[in-house]
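dumping this here before i forget
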Amino acid sequence: MCNLPLITGLAFSLIYVFYTGIYSLRKVVNECTLHSKFTLMKTLVIFAVLLMATSGYSFTSAPEKSKDQSVSVSTSFQTNDFTYFRIHRQAKNVALGWGISSLDGVADFAIERSYDGEFFDVVNQMPCNGSLKQSWKDENVFPGYIYYRVTCVMADGSTHSTEVLSIHINSRG
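structure:
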């Protein structure tokens, strides 16, 4: 069974000893030669690694790539292939406009709206019109902050979204 007060007390004691030791070491370091300072630093690094290892930290190296692994690069539409995304007030509506750099693999666009910037609802899904420039008008807006993003739906089912933009509507007219 775990004895939490004992473990907590030991942890605080270890921290106190560590910080007291650092304060004392500062005096010693000022009086050491360069070789002694290097040895002292190696000792401190080893101590820090041991302290982290016993605290539950784990050290893992990155997996190595074998020479015969191939890397595939997609030439279809990517997130950064949105050339622009703009929104603006247009009378009682909000107009959205965006551009893409390529039509390859693009199936449709989902226009998403949010009133809190976190939870988005799809308010319209429209097919790609064969142009690099797209637009849509939101005719159902209410006062307050409104957040928009456009998600490109690819023919293979993958999706790519624009950045989120917001607009503040003061009144409906």
